[in-house]
Specification:
The complex is a heterodimer. Chain A is an alpha+beta fold. In chain A, 57% of the residues lie in helices and 15% in strands. In chain B, a hairpin with a 2-residue loop joins strand 10 and strand 11. The N terminus of chain B is likely disordered. Classes of the chains: A alpha+beta, B alpha+beta.
Chain lengths: 109, 910
Amino acid sequence: MRRDLELLQGTLDVLVLKTLSWGPRHGYAVARWIRDTSGDELQVEDRALYVSLHRLEARGWVESEWGLSDANRKAKYYQLTKAGRTALREQTVRWGRYATAVHRVLHAV
Amino acid sequence: MRRIPGLRSLFRLPPTDARVAGEVSDEVAFHLDMQTRDLEAQGLAPAAARAEALRRFGDVRATRDELSRIDRARVRRSGWLEWWEVLAKDVRYAARGLAKQPTFTAFVVATLALGIGANTAMFSIADALVLRSLPVAHAERLTLLRSGTAETRMTSWPNPVWEAIRDRSALHDGAFAFSMNGFDLSERGEADPVEGLRASGGIFRVLGVRALVGRTFTEADDRRDGGPDGPVTVLGYGFWQRHFGGADVLGRTIALNRVPFTIIGVTPPEFFGPEVGRTFDVAIPLNTVALVNGDAEALDGRTSWWLNIMIRLAPQQTAEQATARLRAVQRQIAEETRPPNQRPENAARFLAAPFVLTPAALGRSQLRDSYRKPVLILLGLVGLTLLIACGNIANLMLARTAARRHELSVRTALGASGVRLARQLFTESLLLAAAGAAVGVLVAVWSSRMIVSQLSTGDDRVFLAVGLDWQMLAFTAAVAAGTALLFGTVPAIRAARVAPIEAMKDQGRGTSSGRRLGLAGSLVVAQVTLSLVLLIAAGLFVRSFASLATLDPGFDKNRVLLVHIGTRRAGLEPSAHAAMYERILSETRSVPGVERAALSQITPASGSMWNEQLELPERPELSEEQRLALVNLVSPGWFATLGIPFIAGRDLSGTDRAGAPRAMVVNRAFVAKYVGRGNALGARIRLVTHYGDDPTPLEIVGVVEDAVYDSPREGAPPTMYWALAQQKDSPGGLSLVVRSASATPAALVRSVEAAALGVNPNLSFVARPLAEQIGTTMTQERLIAGLSGFFGVLALLLAAIGLYGVTSYAVTRRHIELGIRMALGSTPAAVVRLVLGRVVLLVASGVLLGALVSWWAASLVESLLFGLGPRDPATMIGAVTMLTVVGAIAGWLPAMRASRIDPARVLRED
């Protein structure tokens, strides 16, 4: 059994933001997308994902609306707000710097 | 993804907690279903897929709870924010709409400002006078000591009675005695009066009043020569600010009636004493009154009834219990404080009427006794005026809504909900009401102060704590909200019901509706009704005042000046007073401009009264009260000075002096009541004498016409005029009555006072024209006549405007129909008749209802009227006529406009 990389909450937030940058999705779609795009490496615990979505909404970075899914079922759709887009940009830059710094330390000779 | 049109609640209030939890549930359920479906697609059995989905999710319940918690917090924060934004948008939209119609807005705001302001002002006064408790500790436990039944208003007691009660400390939980009498601050010459409070040492302790600066006086200071600090005084806050500018005054001396007192403290601004309607500038302990008066008569005299006594009940005690305890010792107190040398029958009557304690949380108030009814009635009148104004505004808004029907229907067709439209219109009403209230507060503050100042007359200053305080603001806000509801609701509802099809129709094609009256018409009828009621009330009050003011007082009031001479500090023996007065009189007579001069103890409408009981053994049918006659002491020539004609006999003269047979002049009423047939001249009348009085009878030497003694309302009761020279000295001083040659007696004040000062430089004066003094008896009538007249005229105007507006609008709406009528052969005159017919119906209905209401409510104002009954036909007919005429004019103008409609132009319109 593969050991899935556990995700920190902050990281999950930026991933969710990125996922939504391509358009509105409902919670299940976000989970599927992250799993698929990370090559099934990142295992998102469902409850953590929903907590993240709701927290992002509380901060005003995403907004939600009830709509109909392809299967004509009622689902809650999330989409980025303007503030969310700005936050995504900032967080992406910061994450990149963080990852580079860690990489540098770990691979220092 | 397709959007579902969301359910928006009426005022976009945030979703409830149940709603939030429901949504979270739905979201989680959706996820689990999707996950299950995918797992099934991968090959698992439905039950296994479900179990796996649940396992992957985690703790469902805990997650739901946490999500709900996050959402609830978010909703709470942002929900109200959203609501506020919507409100701001509505307000902005409403403000824009109102700004586009400045005349409408200005008119409505002005009307509301006047109506709300007037109501708030009257309420403020009513509150301060009638409703508010004294601003002291435990006001609800305060009681006032009265004598006899509630009808007898006697609340004054002699000092010995007070001391007897005070010393029996077991009877009460604190008690004090007080009297509100002024002081003279002047050093010499013209008096400088200030409001005064003379109170027993315990007053501040019982009322729980602490000094703002320094200290208040206590029982230790309440001694005849002053306490350890000598004679002390406490200043009222207002006086401290006005007179000393709030400077440090502790230890300074102030001269009260030319006796030096040391200032030891200042009371807080909200404390004005135990009497509502008065305030005090300086307060002194009761026993130091001996210093101020120059003698101890007020303190030792057992027949000087001048103190009010307030008693505080113990915490659980009722007034009845305390009264019972007091009455148990009443006989004892009567024995201790009985005046000496009393005749047996008088002795039996002394303090016979039982003590009564009445609740006094509202303080004692003569002002309230006189003004309670007028103020409440004025409050009612002013409320009616506001209702009429609201009716006008409602009609205006209805017309406005109708005029905007086109716009509103377009918006409805585009998707606005009726509820939203109603809300927007109501926001307009609220905005108008708020603007009106804001200006109204200013109106209220100004007019309440003005009305209170109108209540003050001469040396009878009235003080009421009206001003901008939270009660006034709260009342204003409530009234504003109420008026907005009144005139805003119906137009808003109408707006909501506008159907989109109206957008397709043109305006002006409406014919007259089937109903004769309709909402606008009913409003106008109501307005006319209320206006008539107001007009009749105003008419009654104005005529009352007019008859009072033009009543012949029996003397010539316009050319007479009164100068009261105070001799306390003159430094003369009482026996020398008579000679001094003689000299003053002769000096005054030689002042240029003085036609005549005389002296008297009492002047007309001075507020003082002196009566004596006659002994008429030949008229046994007359009871004791019926044998009371008024007395005045006058010098020779007094009647000529005042212009009171003689009917028979002679005036008092120089021969009527001490030692000579006692002579008196009586008035016509006296003769009619007591002497009956036969010649009054020469009749000898005995008096019921008291301790040490002269028992010789008085001989009637002259009869004069009736003249006002106390107030024109009382008329002229039987009066006796005795010779000054034949009486003992009057310690209170006498009044100079001066008749001037010119029409302005006030011009003589300086010269007359100078003449008197020439005789003795230590005299003090209070000077007033007689006309002014008589005027003080009519203050209440003058005030209510003025105010009700103002509101009556205002109501008339408002009703006329309302009538005009409704008729004009009806004509506009029907102008096509009227044009067609005229094209079909109707004459202009017939059109006018058609329009006026409706007007007549409205006015007639209103007048009828108004007359009925006035008839029914008439008894409310009966006690305030003078010279006419509350159902006086002349007044009612006059009011009806005025209203009808004004209504006819208001309806005539639109009718004329209707008659000038050009049928050809109307038919061409499309």
